[in-house]
Amino acid sequence: MTEIGIVAVGGYNEMGRNMTAVIVGEDIIILDMGLRLDRVQIHEDVEIDKMHSLELIEMGAIPDDTIMKEINGTVRAIVCTHGHLDHIGAIPKLAHRYNAPIISTPYTTALIKQQIEAERKFEVCNRVIPLNAGGTYQVTEDISIEFINVQHSIIDCVLAAVHTPIGAVLYACDFKLDRTPTMGKAPDFERLKSLGKEGVVAMIVESTNAGRSGKTPSEQIAKDMVRDVLLGTEESDVGMIITTFASHIPRLKAIIEAAGEMGRIPVLLGRSMERYVGAAKDLGYLELPSNVEMHGQRKDVDRALKRIIQDGKNKYLPIVTGHQGEPGSILVRIANGETPYVIEPGDKVIFSANVIPSPMTQANRYALETKLKMRGARIYDNVHVSGHAYREDHWELLRMVNPEHVIPAHGDMEMHGHYIEMAEDAGYVLGDTVHLLRNGEVLYIEE
Fold first, then answer.
1. What positions does the entry give for substrate binding (predicted)?
2. Rounded to whole angstroms, how far apart are CA atoms 116 and 383?
3. Does 387 appear as a known binding residue?
4. What pLDDT was estimated at residue 10?
5. Is 152 annotated as belonging to a binding site?
C-alpha cells in the first residue's frame, strides 16, 4: 500500500456536522459524526430524535454521507474525539449504516449512549467502546487508533492518531494548548513530539480560530473572570443569573465554587445541564457540593424559579441554558416573562459564553439581550475564553508534529484561508503539502 485517502464528508464548508473518513487500502476509519446546530434552529435543549436522516441531510444539519457509497472499502471503526454535538450529534442518524464499533473516551461514550437511547427513528446497535487518553485500540492487523490527551471546552477530549503502514494520520479537531487547565491534565506534548519524530503523513486540523492572533487564554483565566464578576460587586443582594455551555464542565465547576464563596445556592436549570453534569458526576469527573440543585423538566424548572422568587433572589445563583438566545431555552423564557422568575432593574445577567458566529444565533442573542435590558437587567458579556486554538497554538502544533501534509477542517472558507496562510509561513505549499478540501471531495496522498 502506497497511498491513503482523506474524504471530506462534512465540516469543511462550515462550522459543524464534522465527519472525515480515512481510507487505508480496503479499510476505512470514520472520524466524528456531528450535527450542524444552526440548521435546525437547534440548541442543547432541542430534541431531533424523531427526524429522518435524509430530511436532516437535505437541511444541511448532518453530514451527507452518501459519498461513502462511492468509496471502495469497509468501514472498520467510527472514532469520536469529544462529546460536543457537532462531533457526535449525527451518530443516532448515521452510525447504523456502518457495521463498525464507535470508539471514544469514557465521558464521550456516556454522551453517545444518551444520544442513542433518545433516538426514536433508527435503531443503533453499534458497539460503543470506551478508550482512555493515552490508550491504543487495534482496529485491524495494520491499523490502530491512538488517543492523545488535549484540552478543549469539554472534558475528556483527545486528538486521534490513525496509525497506518505508511505513517500516522493525526486528527486534531478540536483543541487548545492549555498548560494550566482547571480540570484534567495539560496536553500530552511529549507524545505529540515523539509522534512527529515517528512520522505523520497528514494532519487534519480545525481552523475555527486560526485567524485570531496570539494564543488562546487558559481556562484558569475564565475561572478568574467568572469569580471576579460574581464576587466583585458591592450590589451583592440583587438577583444574579449566569448562563454558559451545559457541556463546559470546568466552567460550571468554577461557577458552582464561586456560588459557594458568595453564600448562594447554585441551581442548575435545563435538560442539557442535567444530561452533561449528570454524566460527569456519575463517572467521577465532577464532585458537587451537597446544596447544589439540578432541574431538567420544565415544570421542575418553573417550580424552582418560583421558590427562588419566594425565598429571595439573593439566596440563589441560577445557572441556566440560553446563552445563544435559543428559542424555548430557560433564559429566553425568563426574558419573555414566561416563567415565575421576574427580572427587576439592577438584576445581573452574566453570559459566560461567546456568541456563535452565525447570523441566526447573533440575531437571537441580540433579541435576548434587548429584552433583558428592557426589563432593567445589567448585562455582563463574554465572561469567557475560547476552547479553540488561536494562530500561535496552531503554529506550535504544526512545528511539534511536523506532518508531511496538512488539511484544515472544521470551519468555513475564511477560516481555512487563515490556516493556510499560517501553514505557508511554516513552509507548506498550497496544493502540494497544504490542501483545501470542500465537502464531498477526496484527497489521495501517495508515499
1. 384-388
2. 33
3. yes
4. 95
5. yes
Instruction: Categorise residue 308: left if φ over 0, alpha if ψ from -120 to 50, beta otherwise.
Output: alpha
Residue 174 marked in a binding site: yes
86 annotated as a binding-site residue: yes
- Domain check: are 129 and 72 in the same one? yes
Q: What is the Rg, in whole angstroms, of the alpha carbon atoms belonging to the chain?
A: 22
Answering whether pTM is above 0.70, one says yes
Distance CA 31, CA 191 (A): 20
The position carrying cell 459566560 is: 352
Is 124 in the same domain as 250?
A: no
Q: Which domain holds residue 227?
A: 219-380
Measured CA to CA, the distance from residue 276 to residue 292 in angstroms comes to: 15
385 marked ligand binding residue: yes
Q: Report the CATH number at residue 103.
A: 3.60.15.10
Chosen domain end from 327, 355, 380:
380
How many structural domains is the chain composed of? 2
Q: In what order do the strands lie in the sheet with 157-164?
A: 136-138, 144-150, 157-164, 167-172, 200-206, 405-409
pLDDT digits (tens, 9 = 90+) for 328-376: 899 999 999 999 999 999 999 999 999 987 788 899 999 999 999 999 9
Position 40 scores a pLDDT of 65
- Is 60 exceeded by the pLDDT of residue 46? no
84 annotated binding-site participant = yes
